[in-house]
Amino acid sequence: MSIFRSAALITLFACAIALNAMAPGENTGAADSTLDIDRSIQPGDDFYHYANGGWLKTASIPAGQPTFDTRAILAARTSQRVRDLIQGASAANSPKGSAAQKVGDYYASFMDESSIAAKGIAVLADEMSTIAAITNQESLSAYLGSTLNTEVDGLTANADHVFGAWVNQSFTDSQHYVFHLWQGGLGMPDRDAYLDPSPKMDALRAQYQSHIAAMLKLGGVADVDMKAAHILSLEIRVAKSHAPDSDAADVFKQNNPWKRADFPVKAPGLNWDAYFKAAGVAEQSEFVVWQPSAVTGTSALVASESIDVWKDYLRFHLLEHYAAVLPKAVAAEHFAFYGTALAAAQQMPDRSQDAIAATNAALGQAVGQLYTQRYFPPSAKAKAQEMVADLLAAYRTRIPTLSWMSEETKAKALAKLSTLRIDVGYPDTWIDYSKLEIVRGDAIGNMRRAEAFNGSLNLAKLNRPADPDEWRIDPQIVGAVILFSPNTETFSAGLLQPPYFDPQGDTASNYGSAGAGMAHEISHSFDELGNIYDSQGRLDKWWTAEDSARYHAAAAKLVTQFNAYCPLSSLCINGEQSLTENIADLAGLLTAHDAYLLSLKGKPDVVLNGLTGEQRFFLAFAQRWRRAQTEDALRRQVKTDTHAPGEYRSDTVRNVEAWYKAYDVTTANKLFLKPEDRAAIW
Ligand SMILES: [Zn+2]
């Protein structure tokens, strides 16, 4: 399942590390996949249960979780590996300046609660006195600029602090980085949390207000109840100016190029000179303002709201921002709202879990180096690159055969394919952390320095041409980042492990599993998600109206197929809602199969565990979708998700002639589709 917020960026499985609970024991999973087969089922009658029956019989959903699947297994396994690496680095005496020293000392300092307690809240004295010294719009604007969040990306809904910056190419110029300015400043997750009039959200707001008061009190502020009410009221007005969540899917609403000179005219209130100077971007001239209403609205509030309320707001957010590295009572109050009230978590997680997440956030590529040295060697990367080359070659052959694309559109698609950059595993050049000092025993200092270091790395890009080598996801995250702008896809080392991908394992299975997954993502560059971005990632609708009409006509058979799938008697799939993803599954499966054939270079594949290469390819595809889930989770997925449940995604094989041949599927089998009922889009 992917998170899909912005048309500019899709991220898959991101943040699995930070979110994941304790992992079970190490099990590298390069097991014989045929052991999971239920041989009492005919593959042509129910391919999903044939492929996964053995696994489904033993899979159990962990308590409190809605689902259990391969992704959860990989996230748990990887999380345990990362934990061991970080804790190992913390225990070792690594050379000063090495990746292991920085990672180990960052973690150890975060874990050193007695040192954090001894220093107390006084570690914020400098920031607190800067806030106290704010007297007017100019000094307020400068302080706000100094807290600009420079680490947001295309998935951010609400930046920590007033405004966030994403440094990326623009939607019209692929050669240069510009400053994408983001809405921010809310303590609760989004606009709706402030504006939804339901009693439930009303109660949540009351809890938030109490939380603000409690944090201020811990920070040594007086008159906290009145101040908390004013802060909430200010945030409600900020929230009113935020763009509605539904806008996030429409990139044309986000592409608002502003010049530096536009800010005081379009968004008066903030002293923009002071703001941008304090943010370190005084010279920046080109911006893309994603949510103009939020910039205008927040800026106006700088002028209209009392300076004292702003100062209390800043004190509260300062405490919130550093809560994890402040004395226990602050961290506990932070959890009481964000963990218990917002996420219904009963117990504060083990501190080591937060420490690992914080270390990953501060030193992502340093942890990534430790991870890949151990778990994803250059030979694994080379193997994955070979598969990518076969997938791209397969698309190059398949696109010219598409019946729904006009000749001119095919030429554009092929041009886009030729510039599509696919990266796997880890970067060739790592971030150089030599200028980032990590000192054992200084948790808050480490956090400040790491934020400043990562922020300046981002802002430094503004002065350089767009860098095609920019790496988008830490290797130790089980995930991928699919960007349309630029035209780039990055699959992490964490994702490329068994059973999805085994560098030493069976090629047929690798192509049927990870290969089909990657080919699915590649297809999005050419479908209704990617057809508004050209070969350079610039906004440009490159399908014709006729292409679109023929595409939908060809897709109708897939809608019919999925509408007929009913996991419960009262619950059927909505073939329209899941259509884009179902088409991508079909594209992915067909193209990965072509790529598998290319990998054989004309030689026959071996028989392994009694299965031919063709059989193993399709088996791996069906096993990719295995998942145990509660009935509630199933209902929620069918009603709200654009991805159908795995069982039906696995049934994509019904449209593929090679599957019928591989498993001798005939008219006598339940999954048999007459050739004229099979969808032919890709
Ligand atoms: Zn997809």
Any overview of this molecule?
This protein is of the alpha+beta class and 682 residues long. It is 51% helix and 7% strand. Helix 4 crosses helix 18 and helix 22 crosses helix 25. The longest helix is centred in the first third of the chain and has 22 residues. The relative contact order is 0.14. The N terminus is likely disordered. It binds zinc ion (ZN). Zinc ion binds next to helix 22 and helix 24.
Write the layout of secondary structure elements.
Blueprint: E1 2-6, E2 9-12, H1 16-19, H2 47-58, E3 67-69, H3 70-91, H4 99-111, H5 113-119, H6 125-132, H7 137-146, E4 164-169, E5 177-182, H8 191-195, H9 199-218, H10 224-241, H11 251-254, E6 257-259, H12 262-266, H13 272-279, E7 286-289, H14 292-304, H15 307-321, H16 328-343, H17 351-362, H18 364-375, H19 378-398, H20 407-419, E8 421-425, H21 443-460, E9 480-483, E10 488-492, H22 507-524, H23 545-563, H24 579-600, H25 613-624, E11 627-629, H26 631-640, H27 646-650, H28 657-662
Parallel strand pairs: 5-7, 8-10
Antiparallel strand pairs: 1-2, 2-9, 3-11, 4-5, 6-7, 9-10
Helix pairs in contact: 2-25, 3-4, 4-17, 4-18, 4-21, 6-15, 7-13, 9-10, 9-16, 10-14, 10-15, 17-18, 19-22, 19-24, 22-24, 22-25
The chain binds zinc ion.
Residues 2, 520, 524, 581, 584 line the site of zinc ion.
Bound molecules: zinc ion
Q: State the distance separating the first and last CA atoms.
A: 22 Å
Strand order of the largest sheet: 1-2-9-10-8
Average pLDDT number: 94
> Which stretches of 5+ consecutive residues score pLDDT under 50?
1-7, 12-29
* Gross morphology: globular
Major sheet, described briefly?
5 strands, mixed
- Count the E strands: 11
User: Based on helices, strands and strand pairing, what is the structural class?
Assistant: alpha+beta
Helix content: 40-55%
Helical segment tally? 28
Q: What share of residues are in beta strands?
A: 5-15%
Q: Indicate the radius of gyration in whole angstroms.
A: 26 Å
